[in-house]
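Contributing new records

If you add data, match the layout below exactly. Sequence lines come first and carry their own label; structure lines follow with theirs. Keep one chain per record. Anything else will be rejected by the validation script.
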Amino acid sequence: MRQLHLRRRQWAAQLRVAQLRAAKARASQFPVPQLLVEFRQDAEKNWWTATLPSHPSVVSQGRTLEEGLINVRKALALVRDDAQALDLVGKTRWDHRKDLSPKALRAVRVASNLRLAFLAAQFRSQTMTRAAVLTLRRENYSFRGAGRLLGITHARVEQIFKEELKEEDELGS
């Protein structure tokens, strides 16, 4: 019995790897358009201002880089219909950090840019997980089965599914 359980887990892991490879192959065939977002920090108020050089009318702000990224995406959605599908690449400007040594300034820039890349990847991951949950549930996978395939709990799958259905109902009304 234990061997059967281990074999099922291996099959699930192999299926997950195959699905990730297929998704990676599809992503390479259809690259996501990228837009540069420039962030500047206000030295006095510690707020981040986000601007898009490709869309000068899109400007937003946030108390954190994450909040600024979310807000600039919302502002971009007012200008472009495909704003949610775009990959926003962040770049920070440290104009008020002139007192830092070049080595410290470089370290801060690298860390900040990596944080922005992480936030963008996290957003893409959440978006793709939501899409996968909807697809699996519409293909009659159970909450547990979908959770095993995606590597998340069945309770989280159910929560995501209910949130997506609620959003669809609100949009349909």
